[in-house]
Structure formats: C-alpha cells, structure tokens
C-alpha cells in the first residue's frame, strides 16, 4: 500500500469482479442462502484475489472503525515477542488505541486466517511480523485502507511501512567479528528456516562473509519444537561428536546457544579459548548464566515503540511526514564467549 489513502473495498467491488449481484455476494460471504457451488466458488475466489474482508461491525457502526490495533506475531512462547509487545503498549497506552494480539505459529495459512478475522472487526491499524506473506494475506493488507506496519525485518519491500533490522547485515557483522577473533572452523545450529525467514536471512549474510574469506561452515544442524535449551545441549553434543575440531559454534538464537554453553561448561571446555560461541537476540533472562553468551540485540523494544508511533501518528494526521521505513542498527555484545581482537 502506498502512502496515499485508499478506500476500503466494498461488496460492490466483489460483485463486479465475480459478475453476480451484491446480494448474492453478501449471502455467500455470510454463508447463508441458496447459492450454487459454482457461484459460491466464483465469489470466494474474487474476494480472495481482491483481499476483501467482510465487516463484522453491524448496523449504524457498519462504516466505522474501532480503536483497536491488530498485532500479529508468530509466537508468544518465543521470548523475543513479549518485549516487542511491551514497546507497542508503552506507546498506545497514551492514546485511545488498544492492541489486540493474534498468533500465527509461523504458518502462512494461519496468518491468513488470523488476519482475515482481525480485519473483519475493522481495526484502525495493523502491526504484523515479517515481510513475507501469502498472496492472500498481502492482498488483504493492501486493501485494508489503514496504516500497516511490518516489523522485525527490513530486508525486503513492505506493503506500507516497516520497522526492524537488516538480518542479512546482522549475520554479516557476526561473521566478521568471528573471523577477526581468529576462528575458522565453524559449526551452525538453528531453527528450520523455510518458515523462519529472519533466521534464514541471518544465515545467508553469515555464510556470505565466510565465503568471501574462503571459509565454509563445516557442520550444521536444525531443530523444530521442544525445549530450546535442551535442544541446544543435544545438538551441541552431537555436533562436537561428529566434528570435534570445530572452534566456533554460531546459534540462530540465544536459547539454543545457552543450552550449548551449559553443555560445554559441564564438559570443562575452555570458552572462548578452545571453542567460541555466539547467539542472537540478547535475551535478558540469560544474563544469569555462568558466562555471558556473545549475542546481538535485535532492538525489540524500540521496534515495538516505533511501529506503534507510526500507527498513532498517521491516524492522528494521515498527511504527516513521519518516517515509515525505519532500519535500526543492532550491536554485538561479545560477552564471555567471543574473543575480541
């Protein structure tokens, strides 16, 4: 969606696209009335392609919006997102706007469903994690006619506004720090990345720098589900049994990195002399570990605050000149597990 104001789609738009009456469109979308399967399929396909979402606000309020901001994130169990929500709430609590959260579990089809339901209540704005969406979700966001802020990532083109970090740059900077410290036999552990686009981009940036320096990752492992701490321990043990000569382990997040750190400390491994470690996210909870894990801050609180400020400011003044594509700069924390040279 461009910066210009777009009118919301109506039943007439779907009627014209599908070639049936507005009354028939209404009956199909409310799942009522005697409508043939062929007509129903034609109407639903037209609505999906347009990104049309029915309005659940009835009667006199039918053309209105409510003071809700739809916040759509992939996970609540991941400790990254509560801090983002805190930033959003810090800004919106000083306004009439109220955040309402939906969770997608990193599944594009679930994101479609959550987005559809939230937009049907006509929120005043949307904050949604990531830049990668299905065609149907992107169509709904483009047709919503409200401010949309995609968060966490700026490696791509937004529907409207975006606030986050460049994950490719984060991966590149961590690789540069590791190589500068003298490490060269590197293993990688992370989430399965087809659906975790931000982890994939960090990995791409990381391996890009290694390749330019004539180095390849010597071992890698991926996980999905279960306790991240336990998985980190298990994967670290298995990787070092396979590849005992590794001198650095890079984890896609701090939680599996913490599991790896605890395992290595139990084994009496010299960290960072024999093996260095680094994660990502700078999770505050892990500051109580026996050693501070090297990591990189993802600017979570600032991302939440900035996204909410964009929504609130544009709703107050649609013609405002506020910056709508904001790339923040995370910094490496070397901790006790990455040598500095």
Automatic annotation (TrEMBL):
GO-annotated molecular function: DNA-binding transcription factor activity; transcription cis-regulatory region binding
DNA damage keyword on record: no
Coiled coil (UniProt feature): none
Keyword RNA-binding on entry: no
Signal peptide: none
Record-linked Pfam families: LacI (PF00356), Peripla_BP_1 (PF00532)
Top-rank lineage group of the source organism: Bacteria
Domain HTH lacI-type: 9-63
Keywords associated with the record: DNA-binding, Transcription, Transcription regulation
InterPro entries: HTH_LacI (IPR000843), Lambda_DNA-bd_dom_sf (IPR010982), Peripla_BP/Lac1_sug-bd_dom (IPR001761), Peripla_BP_I (IPR028082)
Record PANTHER family: LACI-RELATED TRANSCRIPTIONAL REPRESSOR (PTHR30146), TRANSCRIPTIONAL REGULATOR (PTHR30146:SF33)
Protein name: Transcriptional regulator, LacI family
Lineage: Bacteria, Pseudomonadati, Pseudomonadota, Alphaproteobacteria, Rhodobacterales
């Amino acid at each position: 969606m461009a910066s210009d104001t777009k009118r919301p789609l109506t039943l007439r738009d779907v009627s014209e696209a599908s070639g049936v009456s507005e009354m028939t469109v209404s009956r199909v979308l409310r799942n009522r009335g005697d409508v043939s399967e062929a007509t129903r399929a034609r109407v639903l396909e037209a609505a999906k392609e347009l990104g049309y979402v029915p309005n659940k606000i009835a009667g006199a309020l039918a053309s209105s919006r409510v003071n809700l901001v739809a916040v759509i994130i992939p996970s609540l169990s991941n400790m990254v997102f509560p801090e983002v929500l805190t930033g959003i709430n810090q800004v919106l609590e000083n306004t009439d706007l109220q955040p309402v959260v939906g969770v997608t579990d990193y599944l594009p089809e679930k994101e479609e469903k959550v987005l559809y339901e939230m937009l049907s209540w006509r929120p005043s704005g949307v904050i949604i994690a990531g830049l990668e969406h299905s065609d149907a979700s992107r169509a709904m966001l483009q047709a919503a006619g409200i401010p949309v802020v995609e968060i966490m990532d700026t490696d791509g083109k937004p529907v409207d506004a975006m606030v986050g970090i460049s994950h490719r740059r984060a991966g590149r900077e961590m690789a540069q720090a590791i190589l500068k410290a003298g490490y060269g036999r590197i293993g990688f552990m992370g989430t399965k990345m087809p659906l975790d686009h931000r982890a994939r981009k960090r990995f791409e940036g990381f391996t890009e720098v290694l390749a330019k320096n004539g180095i390849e990752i010597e071992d890698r492992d991926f996980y999905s589900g279960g306790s991240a701490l336990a998985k980190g321990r298990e994967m670290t043990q298995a990787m070092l049994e396979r590849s005992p000569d590794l001198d650095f382990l890079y984890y896609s997040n701090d939680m599996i990195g913490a599991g790896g750190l605890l395992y290595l400390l139990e084994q009496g491994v010299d960290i960072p002399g024999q093996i260095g470690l680094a994660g990502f996210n700078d999770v505050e909870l892990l500051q109580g570990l026996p050693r501070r894990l090297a990591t990189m801050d993802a600017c979570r609180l600032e991302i939440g605050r900035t996204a909410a400020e964009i929504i609130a400011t544009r709703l107050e003044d649609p013609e405002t000149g506020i910056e709508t594509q904001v790339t923040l700069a995370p910094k490496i924390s070397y901790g006790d597990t990455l040598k500095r040279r």
